[in-house]
Design goal:
By secondary structure, the chain is an alpha/beta fold. The chain has one domain: SGNH hydrolase (Rossmann fold), CATH 3.40.50.1110. The chain has 9 helices and 10 strands.
Length: 284
């Protein structure tokens, strides 16, 4: 009994000495780092053998400084994303985060009422494209996030006065066809969504990257044949094509005045040339 009591006292004494040492060795919690949320459609996130730009863009940022959360959803428009995905995404956003917001390619097909106004369609009960974009941007900004609007990506949709195309491949060709005359579509819906996104940015005093024209200018320099091999169809990119779009976006993000993205870049991101400032609109 005496021996057992001595053993208990010995263990207790060891615990008194060991606990402070163990506590001192406990690693400190890592400081919270910001997250870049990518909110968009299949051009930003796609399954299978295709890929959206929201996946490879992570390689252009330093994972020790910022996280990329690609919460884009294939097939969505501003309206359907707001109804189904946004209620799950918004609670994740915290002060200091970033939101890259881009919609428009699917809005016409999914019957989002056109325009920017606050009116509600009397038949469907839907708001306008501009209302949904403004609401998501305002929601995120109220939580302390920095919101950046991106106009719709340029698609693999080509025009030429002497040829017609399907998914970048010639269907008909007239005499005198010149590939140097190939021009790419500049914004879904005759460019209306590109302009409406810029209008939302102006109304809310938000930074806007004109991805439509930045990417279109790059594609026209590359040429139709070089661009088309990176697409499965007129919308969806293979991994190499997704990386081209991602790199183009990062070059544009670097062009903003005192860009908050620059300190967060990886060596790969820092190596990219900064886009011309004509493609960005800075808040006043």
């Amino acid at each position: 009994m005496i021996a057992f009591t001595f053993f208990i006292r010995l263990v207790a004494a060891w615990m008194l000495l060991a606990v402070p040492i163990l506590l001192a060795a406990e690693p400190l919690a890592a400081p919270s780092i910001p997250t870049i949320f990518v909110c968009g459609d299949s051009t930003a996130k796609s399954p299978g053998d295709i890929m959206g730009w929201g996946t490879p863009i992570a390689d252009y940022f330093d994972a020790a400084k910022v996280m990329i959360n690609n919460v884009a959803h294939a097939g969505t428009a501003s309206r359907t994303y707001f109804e189904t995905d946004w209620p799950k995404v918004l609670p994740q956003i915290k002060a200091g985060d970033f939101l890259l917001l881009v919609f428009g390619i699917n809005d016409g097909g999914l019957r989002t009422p056109p325009g920017l106004g606050d009116e509600v369609d009397p038949v469907s009960g839907y708001h306008t494209y501009g209302w949904y974009m403004s609401k998501m941007a305002t929601d995120a900004r109220e939580k302390g996030a920095r919101v950046f609007l991106l106009t719709v990506t340029a698609r693999n949709w080509w025009l030429n006065p002497r040829a017609t195309y399907r998914n970048g491949t010639i269907v008909t060709q007239q005499e005198g066809y010149d590939p140097l005359e190939d021009r790419i579509e500049r914004g879904t819906g005759d460019g209306r969504y590109t302009q409406w996104t810029k209008d939302v940015g102006q109304r809310l005093n938000l930074p806007v990257l004109d991805l439509t024209n930045l990417l279109a200018d790059r594609y026209e320099k590359m040429g139709r044949a070089s661009v088309s091999v990176n697409y499965k169809d007129h919308n969806h990119t293979f991994p190499a094509g997704a990386d081209i779009v991602a790199a183009t976006i990062v070059s544009g993000l670097k062009a903003f005045r005192e860009s908050p993205f620059t300190p967060l870049l990886s060596a790969k991101g820092r190596a990219l040339e900064t886009a011309d400032k004509k493609y960005v609109t800075n808040p006043q």
